[in-house]
Design goal:
By secondary structure, this protein is an alpha/beta fold. Helices cover 34% and strands 21% of the residues. It has helices spanning 23-35, 63-87, 109-117, 135-145, 179-185, 192-200, 216-221, and strands spanning 3-9, 41-47, 92-96, 105-106, 121-125, 150-155, 160-161, 173-174, 176-178, 205-210, 228-231. The chain has a nine-stranded mixed β-sheet with strand order 4-3-5-2-1-6-10-11-9, with helices on both faces. The chain has a two-stranded antiparallel sheet with strand order 7-8. Helix 5 runs antiparallel to helix 6. The two termini are 22 Å apart.
Length: 232
């Protein structure tokens, strides 16, 4: 039986830090994602926009406008991922939360599910389509809509910690934790709204792991005990 997963990648996963995109990094991510349908996995992918846009750069900037610019950045990243995936010989379709028919298909759960059932990779862009919600919330929403078994989140740390490991050298890695405890402890590896949505909609688990190597996605898919498992 095929397993359906939703993968949250940061925009920085397509960049080496020197510019918006790095061709070798994009190719490595695409080669990794391309293997998932061959493993009887139906992968949907939500990519952030942080390699292009990091939000307001002046206090005067309209936050709604700034968030809309971030949504457009995620569309650019999805189109980039599609280009590399197609060259790997994999069907990849970009679905956007906003109408932009010249670039991508308007997202509906039915259309994205059809792409996944037919062996393609659904690249889900434009966030949730609304300001004030991050791509963390978008991936939780899409996971609920598409009835995903699991959400994968690639991060810059090893998993979920009891405090921020970048500021607290004593932070402890938590290998197993519930959505409720993540909310109660105020853990910020995902937005609280995203944790609540995953809990409320019965998404079985969230896997959080380091994305220094894109092939960590495959290791987790094969059952390796990387990072943290978050569950109901």
């Amino acid at each position: 039986m095929k397993k359906r997963i939703l993968i949250k990648l940061s925009g920085e996963s397509l960049s080496s830090g020197n510019g918006c995109f790095d061709a070798e990094r994009c190719r490595a991510v695409a080669r990794t994602l391309a293997q998932l349908p061959r493993m009887d996995i139906e992968p949907g992918v939500v990519i952030g926009g942080g390699n292009i846009w990091r939000g307001r750069f002046t206090d005067e900037m309209d936050p709604v406008n700034a968030d809309q610019m971030g949504m457009l950045a995620t569309v650019i990243n999805a189109l980039c991922a599609q280009d590399f995936l197609l060259r790997e010989g994999v069907r990849a379709e970009v679905f956007t939360a906003q109408e932009m028919n010249r670039f991508a298909r308007l997202y509906t759960a039915a259309a994205a599910s059809e792409c996944l059932r037919e062996g393609g990779i659904a690249l889900l862009a434009g966030g949730s389509g609304n300001p004030f919600f991050t791509t963390d919330t978008a991936v939780a929403l899409r996971a609920a809509e598409l009835r995903a078994d699991t959400v994968y989140k690639g991060t810059t740390v090893e998993g979920v910690y009891d405090s921020d490991p970048r500021t607290n050298p004593e932070a402890k890695l938590l290998k197993d934790i519930t959505y409720v405890d993540c909310i109660r402890m105020g853990l910020r590896v995902m937005d609280q709204t995203a944790f609540q949505l995953l809990q409320d909609r019965g998404v079985k688990e969230l896997r959080v792991f380091h994305m220094d190597d894109p092939e960590n996605i495959l290791r987790v898919a094969r059952g390796e005990d990387l990072g943290t498992t978050v569950h109901a």
